[in-house]
Amino acid sequence: MAPLAQILVVKLGTPRADSFPRTTELMQALDYVYRKAQAWGLPVAVNLSFGNVYGPHNGTGLLETFLADTANRWRSVISVGTGNEGAAAGHTSDVLTAGKEKEIQMGIAPYETTINVQIWKSYADTFELSLVHPNGQSIGPIPARAGAQRYRMGNTELLIYYGEPAPYRISQEIYLDFLPVQDYIDSGVWRFRLNPQTVVNGRFDMWLPQAEALNNGTRFYEPNPQNTLTIPSTARNVIAVGAYDALGYTYAPFSGRGIDPPQPPLLPGLFAVKPDLAAPGVRIRTTAAGGGYTTVSGTSFAAPFVTGAAAMLMQWGIVNGNDPYLYGEKVRAYFIRGARPLPGLRVYPNAQIGYGTLCVRASLPE
After folding, report:
1. pLDDT score recorded for residue 348
2. Helix-, strand-, coil-residue percentages of the chain, each rounded to 5
3. 3-state secondary structure of 236
4. Which tens digit of pLDDT belongs to each residue from 124-179?
5. What is the pTM of this model?
6. CA angle 253-361-323, nearest 5°?
């Protein structure tokens, strides 16, 4: 996209077994890039084809807050892929009503070695949580107390944690770890029962791990494809990039989605429309590890289109002297104005592709 740009590649660290690099390693990598850019006196377009599902997804998590603050340090643009969880059935949500119990059904496929479930809600809301095993055994209401609580259901051990608000967020997390007593956790339909006690906001969201870490069939039975952006594409001051099929000119169903406005109530702390726009992310021809070429799909390959486009805009504006302030939110504003619609999507912005698809030509200031 920007063949004359200098490229700084930063490895995020060594991932743990069957896991991803740590959040702190991503923060260190981003800090390194900014320090180098400032030392060299060059504007920087940062590409983050990286994301996870852990957190409140409303821009108030530690990593999201770090990115939002870092983006203001220098003449820069940060582009982040929205992830590939849009059609994965790994997210569900609803709004609780006082006095009305809500049941959530989750299927666990055979041969899962472990999974975890996050429940995020407003700290002002309270509800009793009970859990029903596929064999009918139940536990709960589970006390809302600090520290790990341990239960055994069939051949599955449960570790349950109730979180507290943090200095950078007002949401509360309930975290459930499903661990095998022998080789695998029990498969079948598990049921979460939420019995509201105090309802102020009422909205709750539940997430499973990313689809690539799960067996086929592990899913929520009433999934909600909205609010499936991976973190940190939910941060302020970054460009959240979804994917579309540039050959068929259609939305890519796997692309992580935001929340369609006006859908009340919005998550506490959610400040902006996400994603911002979409770029080609289906059947992308690129270099392969070890040599040669391959064809790939995902928002990890859509985000670099926007990163390269941002680099070209900053080249024209800052390096060539046409606009020394063409970086940050100004670049995002130009991309939003120049975004083009997709056939079949009538309302903009929307949860699928935000303000439209990337068009560099229409984004250039006249």
Report:
1. 92
2. 20, 30, 50
3. coil
4. 999 999 999 999 999 989 999 888 999 999 999 999 999 988 887 788 999 999 99
5. 0.90
6. 120
Quote the CA–CA distance of 286 and 267 in Å, as a whole number: 37
* Cα-Cα-Cα-Cα dihedral sign, residues 11, 12, 16, 18: negative
Both tokens of residue 47? 């590409």
Cβ neighbour number for residue 16 with a 10 Å cutoff = 9
Unique residue bearing structure tokens 């982040």: 80
- Domains along the sequence of the chain with CATH: 23-86+228-363 (3.40.50.200), 91-220 (2.60.120.1290)
Closest CA to 359 of 313, 291, 300: 313
CA distance 212 to 234: 20
Q: Are 250 and 357 in contact (CB under 8 A)?
A: no
| 49-103 per-position pLDDT tens digit | 988 998 888 888 889 999 999 999 999 999 999 999 999 999 999 999 999 999 9
Residue 65 contacts by C-beta under 8 Å, 6 or more apart in sequence?
A: 59, 168, 235
Q: What residue ranges in the chain does DSSP mark as E strands?
A: 44-48, 76-81, 91-95, 102-108, 115-122, 126-132, 138-139, 149-153, 156-162, 171-180, 188-198, 203-207, 219-220, 239-245, 250-251, 277-280, 284-287, 293-296
Work out the angle at residue 234's Cα, subtended by the Cα atoms of residues 162 and 218, and round it to the nearest 5 degrees: 60
DSSP states along 260-320: -SS-SSPPTT--S-S--EEEE-SSEEEE-TTSSEEEE-SHHHHHHHHHHHHHHHHIIIIIS
Strand partners, 198: 126
* Angle 201-355-305 from CA coordinates, rounded to 5°: 120
- pLDDT of 258 above 80: yes
Average pLDDT, the chain: 91
For CA atoms 44, 286, 244, 56, the dihedral sign is negative
